## 1
Amino acid sequence: MTTVGFVCSRVRKDEKLLLEELRERDGVEVERIDPRDVSFGLEGTSGVDVDADELDVVVDRAMSYSRGLYAARFFESYGVPVVNTSKVAHTCGDKVETTVALRENDVRTPETRVAFTPDSALETVESLGYPVVVKPVVGSWARLLAKVNDRDAAEAVFEHKKVLGSYEHSVFYIQNFVEKPGRDIRVAVIGGKAVAAMYRSSDDWITNAARGAETTNCEVTDKIERVALDAAEAVGCGNEGVVGVDIMEDGNDLTVHEVNHSLEFKALTEASGVNVAGAYADHIVEVSE
Amino acid sequence: MTTAECPVCGAEVEPAWEVERGEIIDCGDCGAELEVIESEPLSLEEAPELEEDWGE
């Protein structure tokens, strides 16, 4: 019997597919762990129906970055393997960490600068040249992304972030704008394999499926696979992680702009025809063994 | 599948499919997003607002 601790609060189509796949497997029992109900101590949890030492593996599907990160860290400290590890979550959940990890591992990523005051951010943008993209260091689904085309816009964005945002918005993460051909590529990497990929196309500069981009199948070429696997390795996946690697076609090069540790695969499943949830579930069971 | 009262408008809500605890469904009357607290018997609460660190 394999007992899978399934950390999640909100169940989207992705979680529903994964839960169904896990429950269909012989000898697999799923214990739902809602981060809103649980508290973590140094020796174990309370608010969960099973003790940590009864769990063979934990899968982190929390929508909240901080809840998932700390839940993973605690389960690791209890000796339970977690997909994904807290290291992967930490590296992917913070864009500064992701960028540095990609660079350290020679994975091509946009030119990036980080500044800590509106004045130095403005100076940085002026030296990089317009347009640039300004992103929050923590956040997803393309929320609060800004394409800054000129100095007036830069001044406004930086002042708003400083005045209206939390302290994290005073970390100004600035990237060169990469001209891509109206689309980018999402690759699912599961356990060291690129299992499926899709194009995300949009007339808008943001090509995120959560923002309505059109999704179509993308053949996983050797080149795409190599870049995706290198990016997954850079964020600490080894052969155990599950991530979504976002890649831009930058002329003849492939540039990685994001690695997501809580892979959303509903659109990818529909676009590619690959049973991503099935591969994900198989991998979770493998990690438990 | 049981029904439950919408906590926002009081209408009767009957999901069209087998729901899972934690799933979000819409009230057909007022359109509120509702979280499934229990599936059997069905119990619903207004879904929490999106928080800043939610995502992928």
## 2
Amino acid sequence: MDSVETLTVAKSIGFQGATVVLTAVEKRFDAVAAVRGVSVDVGAGEFLTLLGPSGSGKTTTLMMIAGFETPSAGDIAIDGRSVVAQPPHKRNIGMVFQNYALFPHMTVAENIGFPLRQRGVDRLTRARLIAESLEMVQLPGYDSRYPRQLSGGQQQRVALARSIVFRPRLLLMDEPLGALDKQLRESLQLEMRRLHADLGITFIYVTHDQEEALTMSDRIAVMNEGRIAQIGTPEDLYDRPCDRFVASFIGESNFLPCVVRGFEDGMVVADCDGTLMRGVANGSPAPGDRLTLAVRPERVRFAGADDPVMTNRIWATVTEIVFAGERRRYLCRCDNGASIVVKEPSSATTIRRAEGERIELIWPTADTVVV
Amino acid sequence: MRIWQRMGPVLLVAPLVVYLLAFYAIPLTAMLLRSVSDPTWTLENFQRLVGDTVFIRVFWTTLRTALVVTAGTLLLGYPVALALSRLRGGAASVVLIIVLLPFWTSVLVRSYAWMVLLGRKGMINEALLAIGLTDAPLKLLNTPLAVHIAMIHILLPYMILPIASVLRGLDPALPRAASGLGAAPFSVFARVILPLSMPGVAAGVLLVFVLSLGFYITPALVGGPRDFMLSMLIAQQVELLNWPYAACLSATLLAATLLIIAMFQRLPGVRDVLRAVAR
């Protein structure tokens, strides 16, 4: 068929992904609001991840983009045109489901050929495109197998091939790696990144795995209770979480309750139970505000001779040590009662601390966030 | 103690086994033996069947009725099964009860009900006359049509339940995936839902067809002289004390039934569906 041909050609001359714009999208199931006003602009060719715990509304949002759910309010536009009234089969979106959703009564080739047949692609072109996409997911020669004869990872590759064979400009993925083991998941993550770079199409990816989101995405939208809590690049979210939820959901954080005292050199000065600390704030907190100071465990160090300036410091006692392979975790109790976790690379050159040892903890003020 | 543990299951089923042997297996064997041993050991009874025009006509009527009833229940039952599989909660229970209600009523009662409905002065004819669609009452009762209508009604649950059971077990992501990949609603049905429901269809067809072959009360009550089925012929021959002939007919019906069951059991998935429905 010529439209698929044209698209193949279009790709080689700089084929672009679709833009997706969600405007104040809401979804209520009876009285329960699953999504409460989500607005997001997804750029052409972007890899956006919707990250959140179960029940945060991320899958419902994806289903609305795919057309399997209708928004109760708001608008969804793909390439500038509203698709809210369009049924799923007319949206021309690729989709990968959590449990693959391969058709059990069709062979691998028939599964991959399904979207092409629906578009009236002739048999020869179909065969060529099927072979091409099997090549792309590194499963050449698997044409005549049935899904039940494949491993989980292979099934997911077939599902991926099926969702891109008709050259959609937008690919939606609903926890596609959720059912696979850790090693396979990591290799497929790399493969998906490569595919994303090769195809140049827009990816919207749903996961509850923050590590997966951090490794793969251009941008991450962290969802909580039906809203987007924060949206930004993985570095943004990790280093500058906007609230306590994001700080604890992405990576690990130490939290110290504090009272804002004022500003100095663009940094917030806050009082943590008698110890004055400095940190970066997202908004502009007023003196007297009761907030939380957050710092990542791997940014905290034990004080030594060559300490840099611009650090927060606090005295603590080591209470528990856990060896975790690449890292050693120290659980420390500060003199003011707060607990702080310190992660140190488990090198032979680092000094081992003993349980019960009293020591000063330090960390850069620039790595401190007041939320 | 250990011997009791090992013998436990055997002892639990023993009464039923004895019962079945005494009242089912032994009489059945005796009857089947009679077809080849009366008056002497011979296959003559079966040889006679081959050229017997009465038998051939009755056998054909039976087969045709079973085919029509199976097709009828399939056409009427599939949409109901589809609806049943899509409903959730209260609505699903209501439809299920409507499907099962006739199932729990005696076949005899339902057959008489159809006699009342289809008779010359029955409700259907009265209604047709009242709205002026006909001038004289139609002959509905004691026709093949009456047999088909009544049998389809009585056997519908046997078609609906296995199909609905398969459709309910279908992964809802599959039709979604199909429509996401560009399939219009009819295409989703024809290329994904229908082929995946075939084990249920085969199980339903098997149940209805086999039950139809042996149907007795309904064709006897609402059918006419042309609707003489194999089971009726057997009953008639028993009444006439023509035992060898009756035994021979029974053996033929049993063989035909077993053959069909054996054929269907080979189809993929049918056994699982029958097992699931039995549960």
## 3
Amino acid sequence: MALKKVGREEALRFTRVVESDELRLPGSQIAAGAGGVFVTFGSLAEVEAFLVPTTPEEILASGMQGRLNHLDPPSLAMWVRDMIGDSELADALDEVVASGRAFGLLVPEMKELLAERLAQCEAVLAEE
Amino acid sequence: MANGYAGKILKVDLTTKTIGEIPTSQYEQWGGGHGMGSAIFWDLCEDPTVDGTDPKNVVTIMAGPLSGTLASGAAGRTEVQGIGLQSMPRGWFTRSNFGGRFSTHLKYAGWDGIVILGKSDKQVWLNIVDGKVTLEDATSLWGLDTHATQQKIWASVLGAPPAGNWDTLGTTRDSGRSTQRPAVLSAGPNAEKFGPWASLVHDGGNGAGQGGFGGVFASKNLKAVSVLGTGGIEVADPNALMQARTWLMGYAVAGNWDNQGKNVAGNWPLPANPGTASSFPKGTALRPQGCAGCVRMCRCRSDKIMGNDSMCVDFFTTAGATPEVTVVWTDLMQKLGLNAFNLVGLFPWLRGLVAEGAIGKGKAIDSSLPFEQMTSVAFGVDLMNSIVNQTDIGKDLALGLWQCAQKWGRLDKDLATGMLPLQEWGYVHHYDGRTEAEWGYGCLLGDRDINEHDFNWICYWTPTIWAAYGMTPLVTAQRMAEIMSKQMIPYSDEPNLIDYSDAGIYSETMAKTTAWHRHYTRYYKQALGFCDWNWADFVNPYGPDFVGATSIGEPKFFNAVTGKNQTFAEGMEIGRKIWNLDRAVWILQGRTRDMEVFSDYMYDVAATAKTPGIPYEMPYTMPVFENGAWSYKSVAGRKLDRQKVEDFKTLFFKLEGWDTKTGWPTRKTLEDLGLKNVADKLQGAGKLGAA
């Protein structure tokens, strides 16, 4: 999905880091052997890096080192809209979520959308 | 003798510098490993109420009958036992375990285990080359890290530097030379100063992490144990052993090459496909590495010589740093001989303290560590060095996480919220007892975080991944329950053993599941050495009707090696006996029923993220039996009910034949297990359960 280009002001807003713990997006990082911990994200970049497209076969074949990086996709869309203020990206994420598929199957598309927005912002900010 | 045993156990008294031996036959009824270790501790520790640093503490380092053989996934583990330094409110008699090639060399040197008594007046290391055993001066090794210590010992035993060729150690061709370096088990630098954190490390990263046995070694003025064996182990029926291996191939990916693509890998994935590869930076050249005799090879060695042999939590799996950072931390952690689990629990606690503004330069907990860069190489390095050198907050952390929190006045508060994630006995929260009941109860009614993934793998992790990807499960929850009930001898008539529903976790059937797990792991894993990542094999994509190898496979290998004709049920009964003996030691150490409670957060805080406005539950999909039907369901977000946990304990104690008021075994239970002497001793101490 092609997102509209952003201006400098939007790029600055979309790439900012939410510092307040209360406003960060929760998720969890779970390892088969070690167990899971809650983690939180303060920026689109952190979320994009956290989302790892993989297959269940790959995770299970990794034995105790298998990992699942998990977040709640509807909450991500809401957070992008309310905390980051990027309603276009939020709409696009909502559209992905609306497919009703399981979390793991949404990861590649969610990651792609975030990466596209981040690349746009990076390009705009690099122009200065 | 051709039965898998070497025939003798080495007994070293560090106080008197006496080297002796115990005939293995004296303890053979206990199987090996943990069973023999517990029985020897019972016989030789004159006072189990002492602290772990007391010279009266007895440490056992045990192999098993399958060690050093070709028994699949059961040949390379070593069990360490003694009074530990990590648990609170006191150091319980506890255990740890490590892989590699130590137990193999021990067997090849002619020993089934090592018993260490007393305390040396000088710093020493123990040098075993076949039947020759000496205590060597360790003064120059004492401040060295675990890797440098091993290199020095290799050079000392073989001549510096080891050439990698045949080394002649004796007079005969087949029992006097080796291409191998000695297998060394070492404590970190000055480990007596950070005992509750101190692990024992062998080779690159095989660690006995939990329990603080590095600190116990150091308290005895023992730096390391080195063993080089040039002999072999005779098995009773080599043909049966090879047939067992071939049989097990039917359950492995490698034996089903043309039938891949099933949606669960099972316990026997392809060797040379190590899961730890994902923990290394991209572009690192890796080769698979495993314990002696293993067909799985779950670890790596890298071209950067970083993170070698490490696995799982060693890679700071939940600290949030990149592989480029964590591999450096991992390597340092292994060199310093620090317990990875303590570090993994420390990170979220520090994050919480930082968020509260409670720690940092000039704060209530004053520290110069760079908390603004907690995922940097520098932070982890500074943090670990501070613990080992007792600088900055490391002065307090070195006391242990629980003890440190107490000193900082944070213990009750942070255990109440779970910010300090110590689930029970001061051990770091691993898998969640609020959801995975048998894990939590196993820890609570034992001595430590159990770290046994038998149910965890197939009842939690696999269904959770199936659900996260919307997959059709390999088997329905009902079929999983049927398969596992059949394998869980002697409870095979009970259909609801894996019911993790809100009601199920407090039920009599969960008491049976918990008991089965305690007995199974005590014997098959910790006494015989079946590896946690291969066994138990409950549900298998390649097994007949998806039935895994467990309950058939374990005795098949054991009997082939020992020549015995033991059934799976007989092995389970030995596990129950070992579990009761361990229980008796804890009771002598002061264990009472009312001590067996989880930290407050397990009862008062749901296992959900606490970000206001954005509720979130970590995925936790498990089999449940509700309204007369089985399903896989998310059981996240659950708190435990105090009264129901107490009621569960009553059910469990009754099932085990223990006094429900005290949790102490009764004379009848102990005598039925052949433990009259244990009953007598408990009675003498006024701690025998009422009939």
